[in-house]
Amino acid sequence: MSETDKNTVSPFRAGFTCRCPGCGKGKLYSGLLKVADKCEICSLDLGAEDSGDGPAVFVILILGFVIVGLAVWVEFAFSPPLWVHPVLWFPTILAGSIFLLRVFKSTLISLQFHHKAGVGVVDDTSSHNASE
């Protein structure tokens, strides 16, 4: 695969569809949130790809804001019994967390690949020599 082929895949499209950042066709995950060792289509090594804790922070903030807002709205609009809230929000939080974690994790991995920001990669063009 040439260098120009790698840059034609949109990192946001590959991230939202949870596909390989190199070809945009192979599956990024081998499990629920486990990144595959390599792409089944283009054989890109995905084993070293890591998104860190960034996706979890985004999910906590976004989903927390949405769920709390919806819970307050349901409470004031309908005044349901107390047991209704856990029945409504636990499954919503679980499903939303898994979906958003997959999307945000794959998007951050795709953006890292697109900008060549892998683990241990140093960009020599932006480093400055202090003696100059």
Protein described:
The chain has one domain. The chain is built from four helices and no strands. The N terminus is likely disordered.
Kindly report the average pLDDT value: 87
How many individual helices? 4
Low-confidence stretches: 1-6
What portion of the residues fall into strands of 2 or more residues?
Answer: under 5%
Secondary structure class reads: mainly alpha
Number of strands: 0
What is the total domain count?
A: 1
**Biggest sheet architecture:** none
Overall form:
elongated
Helix content: 40-55%
Radius of gyration: 20 Å
Terminal CA distance reads: 39 Å
Elements, N to C (H/E): HHHH
Please describe the topology of this protein:
Elements (H helix, E strand, L loop, with lengths): L2 H5 L3 H6 L37 H25 L5 H31 L18
Helix pairs in contact: 3-4
Q: Outline of this structure?
A:
With 132 residues, this protein is mostly helical. The chain is 51% helix and 0% strand. The chain has one domain.
What are the salient characteristics of this protein?
132 residues; mainly alpha
